[in-house]
Amino acid sequence: MAMARRAGSRSKNESVLTRSVNKVFGFLKSAEFEILFVLFFVIAFLIFKDLMIKIVGSC
């Protein structure tokens, strides 16, 4: 019980910016797989698009 009370009081002493940055990092940590999954497909699409432009453009 004392641990929860201490963590709660620490949160009140933190600035709004610190709390918002911590929430953003918490979200990124929980959504890490989904972000990497989408990033992989975006990079693969860009590489494939460039390859297709070079192949089709040379004809």
TrEMBL record:
Transmembrane segments: 27-48
Keywords, alphabetical: Membrane, Transmembrane, Transmembrane helix
One GO process term, biological-process aspect: response to oxidative stress
Source taxon at top rank: Eukaryota
Protein name: Uncharacterized protein
